[in-house]
Amino acid sequence: METTQNAGWLEGALAPVPDEIDAADLEVTGALPPELTGRYFRNGPNPLPGRPSGHWFTGPGMIHGVRLRGGRAEWYRNRWVRTKTFLDENARFVGDDGTLDLTAVPANTHVVPHGDKILALVEIGFPYEVAPELGTAGPCDFGGTLTTAMTAHPKQDPVTGELLFFGYGVLPPYLTYHRLSADGARVVESREIEVPGPTMMHDFAITENHVVWLDLPVVFDLDLALGGGGMPFRWDDSYGARLGVMRRDAPGDVRWFDVDPCYVFHVGNAHEDPAGRIVLDGVRYRPEDFAATWREIGGSANPAGDAARSESAHLHSWTLDPATGRAAEERLDDRNVEFPTHDDARTGRRHRFLYTVARGALVKYDLRDGSSSVLEFGQDASVGEAVFVPAEGARGEDEGWLLSIVSGASSAELVVLDAADLSRTASVRLPRRVPAGFHGSWIPDA
Ligand SMILES: [Fe+2]
Fold first, then answer.
1. If you measure from the C-alpha of residue 265 to the centroid of ligand 1, how many angstroms do you get, rounded to a whole number?
2. Exposure winner among 42, 198, 233, 328, fewest CB in 10 A?
3. In which residues is Fe cation bound (predicted)?
4. Separation CA 295–CA 297 (nearest Å)
């Protein structure tokens, strides 16, 4: 590992908060829709004061929660997820005998409801179940039915209610597909997927009948792992880049499509078009952009390019045609964006709108006519992922609200926007700044 770099993930908008606090009866500006009764939870790394931090991705997870009910903001609280490594600084993910402890993880990337559980997720290990009041219940392997790690980006099928996901491993099996029952009680299907090697696979996509895999050239590096401290992954030009299409009713049989080398942390959505092609959209990093981003957050020196340039990533689409075996690629916009979200009821189905985060702003894309609209919060504002919550009885795809934590240097707010026109419906004043983090969910009471 390089030791000369600045720990940029401990400063500015990413700087951790030192403790856990509670606040009640939060000040609301505007009018909170009474039907927004539930909890907004958002996860992200928050290194403990005094403990070493080698990479932004390895800090212990902290969930920031806001409770809304009947037009009021009842509370804010923030809690670390009490994983094995949080409780015991000496707990090790890789044991001396080379075996992995899938509970010795930071649980810092996402927090999602499924069935009767709320799961804090990180892609290298088991989920941790957390309570509605944010206490940690413990690691969850769904009654012993999960035997690999679980991605932080599972996809709930809007029709079956099942949770589709995968686990990747640095040891074989490198990739395993899983299907969790709609009630969250047990994994009902697990199938190994053949890939050339261990890569950092952060996300995937589903369609009505298919799963879409991203097998991209950010590979596990044993030497980096033995060095300890950071993320043991690096760019590898020789690995190639491919997207895979797998029928959901025939897992294991994957059709691969070569694509231009890139990295994708996050997909937007995917669907099948009338011609039987798979259309995927996501946020694409060119090799040099990945290098710059990776170094900025603690990654090792990277042969993919000169990391002096600033990081950037663009909304992109890939159309995979089984008839020709080829992938068509298109950049959809020149803005630098991340954290794409959509109406989860349209996961795997044709969608029209995507919501993304740009520097100091939210950007809404209309994929039907190619237009976009922007809501600026100011260059100094740290704008979080926008979670879409449909209005009761919504018919239009953007009929509902966007929830996002927008933080400044000393204070933060949960903003509630009308998703149709990005106008501000309400703001909830939070009692402290909230570090820029990863992903969150709206968890309705019903
Ligand atoms: Fe993510």
1. 6
2. 328
3. 153, 202, 266, 439
4. 5
Q: Is the preceding peptide bond at 173 cis, omega within 30 degrees of 0?
A: yes
pLDDT for the residue 301: 58
To the question of whether residue 202 is assigned a binding role by annotation, the answer is yes
- Alpha-carbon distance of 256 to 283, in angstroms, equals 20
Of 436 and 4, which is predicted with more confidence? 436
Ligand 1 centroid from CA 324, angstroms:
31
pLDDT at 3: 37
Do 314 and 333 touch, CB atoms closer than 8 A?
yes
Distance from Cα 29 to the centre of ligand 1, integer Å: 30
Cα(270) to centroid(ligand 1), Å: 16
Q: Taking the domains of the chain in order of start, what are their residue ranges?
A: 8-444
Confidence of residue 2 (pLDDT cuts 50, 70, 90): very low
Q: Is 351 annotated as a binding residue?
A: no
Distance 272 CA to ligand 1 centre (A): 23
Q: What is the pLDDT of residue 302?
A: 55
How far apart are alpha carbons 383 and 406 in whole angstroms? 5
Does 316 carry a binding-site annotation? no
Is 266 marked within a binding site? yes
374 alpha carbon – ligand 1 mean position (Å): 22
pLDDT tens digit sequence for 35-67: 999 999 999 999 998 887 778 888 999 999 999
Task: Determine the distance separating the centroid of ligand 1 and the alpha carbon of 202, expressed in angstroms.
Answer: 6
